[in-house]
Design a protein that fits this description.
Helix content: 25-40%
Mean pLDDT: 92
Distance between the termini: 22 Å
Number of domains: 2
Number of helices: 12
CATH architecture of the largest domain: 3-Layer(aba) Sandwich
Largest sheet: 7 strands, mixed
Order of helices and strands: HEHEEEEEEHEHEEHEHEEEHEHEHEHHH
Strand content: 15-25%
Oligomer: single chain
Radius of gyration: 22 Å
Number of strands: 17
Amino acid sequence: MTGETVFNQQDRVANLCILTLNGTQELGEKINRHLVSWAQKGGGTETNFLVESECPRFSSGDGKGVIKSSIRGDDLFILVDVGNYSCTYKLFGKENAMSPDDHFQDLKRIIQAAGGKAHRINVIMPLLYGGRQHRRNYRESLDCAVALQELRQLGVSNIITFDAHDARVQNAVPIMGFDNVIPSYQTLKTLFRSYPDLQPDRDHLMIVSPDEGAMHRNMFYASIMGVDLGMFYKRRDYSTVVNGRNPIIAHEYLGNSVEGKDVFIADDIISSGESMLDIAYELKKRKAGRIFAYATYAIFTNGLATFDKAYEEGVISGVLGTNLTYRTPELLQRPWFHEVDVSKYIAYFIAAINHDVSVSQIIDPHEKIRQLLEKKRSGQEI
């Protein structure tokens, strides 16, 4: 089954409607183009699934959600990027960058504006709000779990997120639809296209997990490509707390030799990037070949200078990141950065949910990766 064959069926849940919140317009346009193309190939006449909305602010900082056209009876998909700090609003005449809290509040405003009118409300939140505060120690808040419960109480039926920091947070809303999507196929396709000479076999490539929390991601890549897996674990000083966390003393390696092999490291997020670079330098000490780092969310909170230096020194050969959250223009211009486009994958999910069919009927990532590896190993163009 393909995107167009899904739209050829007449069993939609309701008319499809996509609403993009502030900072998601570029990704929303790409998703819309895929869906419109499939709908027209399937015999439909649709030219646009996007609906305009806004969340204007009063000068005092109060806001409201406004949907600019009718959504009555529609299957509504709301796209939000809680990590987009390039969006701003004015508060008492001063320009303020939108925080994750501001984006989440706008999401709730739009859901309220749609309440009682849309047939069903689905939220596509690639970067899960509060996702890094997924467990509680002592007297701490549990932001992500409470946020998910808020959305359920507001009438949201489904949440689609990508590479959640800890997907077990969905246990907070056991009766609400929750899809945690991993764009593995899109990542490998971008990696192979960016580095055509990369050989995905046991003699030339090794997967290394940056820590124990990322083992499941890296174990998948190692298993699907049939290569060796190693890992680092973070040795911490548990007698000290710095910025709310026990500081890392060292990264210790467990696994087979990486000497002479290219290394692929996958994680959900590159924040400051310090841990990723520490691991890259450690691997180079062990005579690894090229090092490729991937993070679903490559946000570089401390800037790009340290990665520029690592690239110039030959420590990092490339970094891959998706277009699921904001990327600075400077990052997109870096020769070492390669963007993984996930818009088509999101469109598949929207089409499947809108027609109440299994996503695996439209796209099976395991089969797609198998075909991709066959092409790669047989020397075909990807």
